[in-house]
Write a structure and sequence with these properties.
Blueprint lengths: L2 H31 L5 H32 L1
Amino acid sequence: MGVEDLADRLASLSEELGDLAFDRLREASSSAGRGELNPGLVAEEKKLTRARRAVDKAVILLRAMDDTVDD
């Protein structure tokens, strides 16, 4: 497995994390609309978003590393 393959796998995980974060936001919005705000959902969304950003940074670093190896 090469660096680019790993970067691609991480990019896919980033998308999944984004989907999960969006789901939490949707759930939080729905619960707030019913007057049942769930702060746990908002906290989960924030953690998922932070994790996604970290994975995105790893993807950028790996792709940059792969670019320097190819030169």
